[in-house]
């Protein structure tokens, strides 16, 4: 067997990555374009980034987005972690199947449907739409992602650690905070980051549940693009991509390191 | 009652050493009492209407195959399970319904369950901190424990930086730190290799005597139970089959189950021919038919069928019929010999197809064996070597 890649494999990888990332690369490149025209290259410039930071509308939108993402990710992390604990710890309780189905349904539910149903709910209960409705909607649809991440960690969690804490006189609540949580923390953190990025780039659900005065960055960008793509938008998108990339990379490094450490500990344990 | 090597002595006020056997003293008050305890998980009966007394300063072993209920019995004492029926008391205090964090028991877990995010020092101090002990007292106690398990140099290490044996000692120190009324040991040496396990068994016994504490150990390893325990409870299907000191369990098993589970044993079917005080005569059809005589009191009738259990090390193999006794002599042929170095195990096929094992210590160096494959031999044993079992 040959070690290297055949020309077929090389070509398919190149084509695949080109298909996925060429548009993004182009966007990033053109964000540094000196020309006003999006499709004509006229030399390197950071002018649009400068302009961007003077565009109050975009800055407001970015501020709303960050607040929504931070708040919804935090609440979703608490709720998602609790749901994961309920699902892994309490093997048999009335309506477990229903509960687990309901936790994971938003994972596969088309966003349009989630958005529309939330909108109908908010209208029905006469909830003023705006910042809080977007936040609530984002909590609803990101919670299941946190739950999946935390649950996969809890499955391999040695329950005798908690029993040992109880046995040594620690109350159940305190046991959760001093034993369980520190051990599953990396999974909780990467769940939070996942929720944060999902909220950050959501357009569909935010559009359905928004109201006057609460425009998120993706919504602002989308509405400006309809009037024509400006290099300013390219710059905004580049920053967004950078944030998302950093968060996702950090989250995956945390997960990976945790995995490696666990394997190392297991090897050591096996070697005795 | 025969005296086992592990039975300890205790010094009385008069300075007279006597055997440690509170279970034989009707005035002794047990520390732990299981009274008609049952535990069911759905349909499965883990512990079945079981009563058991354990005394202070005892090293008590629960022995049985996996699924026999021994771990459940221990977990009910720790508070991780509540009995479905019955009462458990510790020093007269009813434990049922009391959460584990209020009980004066501590457990050493099979997986050790060391907190991975805490150092050795913090692991040992964990239980003491829950009691809101003052800082100086905690420091002193943790240092004492580290010294006890000889891990002073490892206080700052994290559990994953320790070897298996060291982790086992940290787990032990952590569970001893609060000086519990009972220390529970759940298969504590299962993860160690054989040599280390044997060493640790003696360390555990030593520690238990030094600290004067009550230890309850769960194990499926009969050698471990025999080595460390004052008394062993052999369990099967959620019931106690026999509770006795190791020597009694081995030499006077009360059933085929115990005889078979603890050590190696040959079991022959026989019919009771005569019952006299201190002696039973039986007849077995194997080995060409033979009279058996066992020095034992048995409650059985003439004509009842029974089993005779005989340990391999108590069986003699000779080329000539033994002249010194009439009973307990069976004819057969050497079917196989297992050479173990210290012992040779002779597998003798009796007439009728039943095989019997005889262990012979190799007392001298030998290359040529006087008895070898396919030799016609006689197997025999003394009347007080075998045991008659009626169940």
From TrEMBL, chain A:
Gene Ontology cellular-component annotations: plasma membrane
InterPro entries associated with the record: Bact_Polyamine_Transport (IPR051789), MetI-like (IPR000515), MetI-like_sf (IPR035906)
Membrane topology, as annotated: Multi-pass membrane protein
Organism domain of life: Bacteria
Chief site of localization: membrane
Residue ranges annotated for the ABC transmembrane type-1 domain, each copy included: 62-252
Spans through the membrane: 12-32, 68-90, 102-125, 131-155, 176-198, 233-254
Keywords from the UniProt entry: Cell membrane, Membrane, Transmembrane, Transmembrane helix, Transport
Record carries keyword Transmembrane helix: yes
Coiled coil found in the keyword field: no
Biological process annotations from GO: transmembrane transport
Subcellular location(s) of the protein: Cell membrane
UniProt xrefs under PANTHER family: PUTRESCINE TRANSPORT SYSTEM PERMEASE PROTEIN POTI (PTHR43848:SF2)
Protein name: Ornithine carbamoyltransferase
Organism this protein belongs to: Ancylobacter defluvii
TrEMBL record, chain B:
SUPFAM superfamilies xref list: MOP-like, P-loop containing nucleoside triphosphate hydrolases
Residue span, ABC transporter domain: 32-262
Record-listed E.C. numbers: 7.6.2.11
A molecular function (GO) term: ATP binding
Keywords assigned: ATP-binding, Cell inner membrane, Cell membrane, Membrane, Nucleotide-binding, Translocase, Transport
One protein family per Pfam: TOBE_2
Catalytic reaction(s) noted: ATP + H2O + polyamine-[polyamine-binding protein]Side 1 = ADP + phosphate + polyamineSide 2 + [polyamine-binding protein]Side 1
SMART domains, sorted: AAA (SM00382)
Coiled coil: none
Subunit structure: The complex is composed of two ATP-binding proteins (PotA), two transmembrane proteins (PotB and PotC) and a solute-binding protein (PotD).
Role according to the record: Part of the ABC transporter complex PotABCD involved in spermidine/putrescine import. Responsible for energy coupling to the transport system.
Protein name per the record: Spermidine/putrescine import ATP-binding protein PotA
Species this chain originates from: Ancylobacter defluvii
High-level lineage: Bacteria, Pseudomonadati, Pseudomonadota, Alphaproteobacteria, Hyphomicrobiales
Gene label: potG
